[in-house]
Design a protein that fits this description.
Number of domains: 1
Strand content: under 5%
Structural class: mainly alpha
CATH superfamily: MetI-like
Oligomer: single chain
Order of helices and strands: HHHHHHHHHHHHHH
Distance between the termini: 41 Å
CATH class: Mainly Alpha
Number of helices: 14
Length: 280
């Protein structure tokens, strides 16, 4: 076998092994979700069973006692993730647009001040953010779940880097044609930025969907519980049974994977293009 061919085979083997390692927890969750609770007392079996449909029906229709319904939790997560993603786009695009296309004193200082917030751990920012949330009366409602999370230094940075690939002549030509800043943004910049908008939307949707600590801090109402919070509550509820209901918990965990996976698959082409392409 030629050295180049041998290296190619080795790369494929390593990729397959890495993919298998990453997929193993999902497979084990699927196996646990397809078995009755009694079958899991001795550990997680390796072969799937035939009870997945029954378990799906159980968690979607009834859920576990003392836990919110799965559909309501997934609905809360979807609303929160969409609101966070769209809010980050609405704030980040104008911020990056101003830094790139306007010339004003202190613009780069403002950008680096925004960028410096990435150096702070998220947990450090939670305490002052929580205090502001309390003062604004946003506890136990959708505003408290969404508003403190919509500022994004990462999104501003990504949009700034993308906007910097626009030719200077494009802005000069628009200015000569009498196109103002708002029309230039809406008619030229945004249509050319669709892949980048899609990529940031996917990243921020997954970020909003996976939030656990912040919703745990700002809401104590089961009515506003997200699916990630609900899984934790269902684990505590499942352990209170004589036979722990791990099959139902794993079923909910699988359901929680579906919306982010669907978003990534639907927007995969735009997502990849948005992270790699620029304006030439």
């Amino acid at each position: 076998m030629r050295p180049r061919r041998r290296a190619e085979v080795l790369r494929h083997v390593l990729l397959i092994v890495a993919a298998a390692v990453l997929a193993l927890p999902i497979y084990l969750a699927f196996v646990a979700a397809s078995k009755p609770a009694t079958a899991l007392l001795q550990g997680v079996p390796l072969a799937p069973g035939g009870q997945l449909g029954h378990n799906l029906s159980q968690v979607l229709v009834h859920g576990l006692p003392d836990s919110p319904t799965v559909l309501s939790m997934m609905g809360n997560s979807a609303v929160m993730a969409l609101a966070v993603a769209l809010g980050k786009l609405l704030l980040s695009v104008p911020a990056a647009y101003a830094v790139v296309f306007f010339r004003f004193r202190g613009r780069m200082a403002a950008f680096w001040l925004i960028f410096a917030t990435l150096m702070l751990p998220i947990e450090v920012r939670f305490f002052p953010t929580y205090q502001v949330t309390v003062q604004l009366g946003l506890l136990n409602n959708l505003g408290g779940l969404v508003v403190p999370l919509i500022a994004s230094a990462t999104a501003v940075f990504l949009f700034r880097q993308y906007f910097m690939t626009f030719p200077v002549a494009l802005a000069d030509a628009a200015r000569l044609d009498g196109i103002g800043p708002v029309r230039f943004l809406t008619r030229i910049v945004l249509p050319l930025s669709k892949p980048n908008l899609a990529a940031v939307f996917v990243l921020e949707f997954i970020y909003g969907w996976n939030q656990y600590l912040w919703p745990l801090l700002v809401t104590s109402s089961a009515h506003n519980a997200t699916v990630v919070m609900g899984i934790r509550e269902m684990i505590a509820s499942a352990q209170s049974f004589a036979v722990p209901q791990w099959d139902l918990v794993m079923t909910v965990a699988l359901l929680a994977l579906v919306p982010p996976v669907v978003v990534v698959l639907v927007m995969q082409r735009w997502f990849v293009k948005g992270l790699t392409a620029g304006i030439s």
